TrEMBL record, chains A, B:
Originating organism: Pelagivirga sediminicola
Pfam family membership, one: MTTB
Region: Disordered, residue numbers: 1-21
Enzyme Commission number: 2.1.1.-
GO biological process, one term: methylation
Protein name: Methyltransferase
Length: 514, 514
């Protein structure tokens, strides 16, 4: 009982909040995007072949470092690589051959089957911001993130129509010990939302906790037979695989759970300043990482990841939404498709401190590249501020609304008889207007995307209502969403079992804050 | 002398301002964009063929209205069209055949030959906002535009590195009589900037004034031999050509000056609510307009224009940066290329009242579509606010900075030996970093696009400096630009002759404000 009380306190809600969350009403979530428009291929066949040949040279002649992981070195040796200390040199063609067993597309299950997602091929799935230690909103400014903030983001994500996933570390709950916070984060995703989510990667034991908790939520056999998590394995670029991330990958791959193998690169620091050079390194790292996942379990689902920003060479600050980052996003997508792997990139990235015009310009550049460049899994689709240091509440709501633009862009254009609208052109004729014609009446409801946030009002109305900017409108919408949030229903037995698991785990180890 | 004094007063500067403007120092302007990346073709061959067939049906069976212009009807009859009152029905294939004499690419000369632009093929030229009756800045809020505002925009445009043109009606100087303001606007473009500009289209006589003033600036023979203006001829959609715009087109085409034939469409009101239906009407209108330009003078340069927004079906408000507007932008580009004509669209369009996140999201969506969709002439590249009702000073500076993103995107990617950077990858190896390596040192200066406006500073620095948002930074930059503006030199004889022309013209007619 003390433990249950403890959990309730940790969640921070009073009695009224709990009552408000009690009723379970489902909210609308759009189906994952299926592109009915072509993908944009920026690089030539010649450039792609050069990158692929050079990546093989990197793997064979330079190799990658596999750190503090003797078993991984052994696996690589058995597979045919040349081991020299922690350096692993992979003969030409071997990594690519090993990658061939990875599926080109997979289903990730949600506890609500309507929210299942397909990852790969022509799909695009949206997931929120991942990783910031700070949060920002209009009332509180910039501050360290807490578990209460985390739960708010999960609720907002659940309420966001164009967001397909609940995500992973939507912010770092810095008020919970480092070695226990993954339990609370998973608990929030599992109980406050019914959208698919990501597992913990900060230690192999935490990856195992993620698998075990999914066993409670989905059933153990279901988890062994199906993918219920996609988790983020960053490569320590350049060309280094550490034991923590690789250990988590080993747990997930062994359990048939999906991982994103994602070089994390600030261009000019962790990779060459040139686009083709960076893509070469990205490809080499992904080939090595994906190949390793298939050494653990052939057929384990895995995503070709690329998180690449550019750098401001004057200050050393990472920069976002830049043309060079877009070049790399487009190029990496082409390389992923040639490997028959799903492709992950960043989303609404920006360097801005505030959810202002800079944030929106930068975010929109990447959102457009994501859609056109064939991304299948967009992490950081909403909420990212200040180079990923901050998860912004207003930014979350603003970006989440913009994801609707991508959905409608991807629908493409119908050229059937109704789409051709020749009857309307005949009916209206020169000098007429279309507002009242039959074709308009029949089609206007679905004809145009409509924001649920941005302002389309006449100037006078807008001015009378306080001349509010987008940040202010987003703040209002954020509060409205949280006020009307209702927790999706979950079997009481599962809830209790999750609580028990977490209580026992927490009791089994001392708090750690490093 | 009285005339000269009058001119000086009209320009609004005191003695100090005139002294500050006296020295002529050239500012850097980027060369027009040449795309080294592929164009994005969204529509299928089948969809394009349907649109083209349907557009011919529209012209042949429905026809277009040619209003208050008996001579135009005569020209059409002579060319083989069927005339019924003001209705002109154009037999299948005739308009397309007439369009064939229009050039696929032309040079527009600036008085400074370094600023000449190429329009067509793989180029993209940027021109500022056109037409708003209001202006907005942080100090004065939203107010009617004046000639003083107009001159400030021309100066800002001259100082903007990524802006290739000085534009046309960057705002409507409402303090100058309607029948005289074109003279002051042209005077500003000709004397305060040396970038290429647009002529007046609000009356055939004003188009003639534009040609005559260009005769003074460039020399009469030069104007007859070369294109020195590109002017904006809007079609009264649906399918109507009025005498004012057609009269201006006649003047320009006869003088070998370029025109944009531009359907101006709020989708759902002036065209069907479907993308393919709208594209059909756009193509029919452009075919008729371009064909008519070639009836005036075969070979006259002309641009395939399309200004198409969507509509908020709840409020009737026009909306910008929407997916449907992007669909149309991409599709119209494909149609223009199949006609071998240069292509014009809008640019940093938005519905937002303020230069905030909404403005930037919406603007960035269109800017990206412009680059990828093969636009050759981007009107409204910077400064547009509130559906085109307002020219924003801060928005102008913000968008103008973003145009640099497009320049670097369009550069594409080099895969030569330096671009491959294999030496750098070898030098740095696993776990190293690239900041100090030889390849980075040799390439970092040009490797990444860098803003001159947005904030990349660490949070603490930014916070100490006042936690300024993008609008505030743009306001500061705008004042810095205007404070350091220096007028480009111009032969005194030309200046005097322009002044004389304007003085005589103004004296020859009473003021008109309608």
């Amino acid at each position: 009982m003390a433990e249950v009380e403890g959990r309730r306190r940790a969640r921070g809600g009073g009695g009224a909040a709990r009552r408000a969350e009690r009723t379970a009403i489902s909210v609308e979530t759009a189906k994952y995007i299926e592109r009915n428009i072509p993908v944009y291929n920026m690089l030539s066949e010649e450039a792609l072949e050069i990158i692929e040949a050079n990546a093989e040279t990197v793997l064979a002649e330079i190799g990658v470092n596999v750190v503090d992981n003797p078993k991984a070195l052994e696996r690589w040796r058995d597979a045919g690589a040349e081991i020299d200390g922690e350096r692993v040199r992979i003969p030409r063609g071997l990594a690519r051959k090993l990658c061939a067993t990875a599926p080109s597309r997979y289903t990730q299950h949600a506890r609500n089957p309507e929210r299942n997602i397909e990852i790969g091929g022509n799909t695009l799935v949206t997931a929120p911001v991942y990783g910031p230690p700070f949060v920002r909103d209009m009332e509180g400014g910039r501050r360290y993130a807490t578990m209460d903030d985390f739960r708010k983001f999960v609720k907002l994500g659940y309420m966001s129509k164009w967001l397909h996933m609940s995500g992973g570390t939507v912010c770092e709950p810095t008020d919970v010990p480092v070695n226990k916070r993954h339990l609370d984060m998973l608990h929030a995703h599992m109980t406050l939302s019914d959208k698919p989510f990501m597992g913990s990667v900060t230690d192999p034991s935490r990856a195992q906790d993620s698998v075990d908790m999914c066993g409670i939520l989905f059933g153990e056999q279901f988890v062994q037979d199906n993918t219920v998590m996609t988790s983020l394995i960053n490569v320590n670029s350049p060309l280094t695989f550490d034991d923590v991330m690789m250990g988590a990958l080993e747990v997930y791959a062994a359990n048939n759970q999906a991982c994103i193998i994602s070089p994390f690169i600030v261009g000019g620091a962790m990779a060459p300043v040139s686009v083709i050079g960076t893509l070469t390194q990205v490809l080499a790292e992904v080939l090595a990482g994906v190949a390793y996942s298939q050494l653990i379990r052939p057929g384990a689902p895995v995503i070709f990841g690329a998180f690449v920003t550019s750098i401001d060479m004057n200050s050393g600050a990472p920069t976002f939404g830049t043309p060079e980052a877009s070049h790399i996003l487009y190029g990496a997508g082409q390389l992923a498709r040639r490997l028959n792997l799903p492709y992950r990139s960043g989303g609404a990235l920006c360097g801005s401190k505030l959810p202002d015009a800079q944030a929106a310009y930068e975010s929109a550049h990447t959102l457009n590249a994501v859609l056109m460049g064939g991304v299948n899994f967009m992490l950081h689709s909403c909420g990212w501020l200040e180079g990923g240091l901050v998860a912004g509440f207003e930014k979350f709501v603003m970006d989440a609304d913009q994801l609707g633009v991508l959905h409608n862009m991807a629908r493409g254009v119908s050229h059937d008889e109704n789409g051709q609208a020749m009857d309307a052109i005949r009916e209206v004729g020169p000098g007429g207007h279309y507002l009242g014609c039959a074709h308009t009446q029949a089609n206007f409801k679905d004809a145009f995307w409509r924001t649920e946030l941005l302002d389309y009002k006449p100037f006078e109305t807008w001015d009378e209502e306080g001349a509010r900017d987008t940040m202010t409108l987003a703040n209002l919408r954020m509060h409205r969403m949280l006020d009307t949030y209702q927790r999706p229903s979950l079997d009481q037995g599962i809830t209790d079992a999750l609580d028990d698991y977490i209580a026992k785990k927490k009791a089994s180890m001392p708090d750690a804050f490093m």
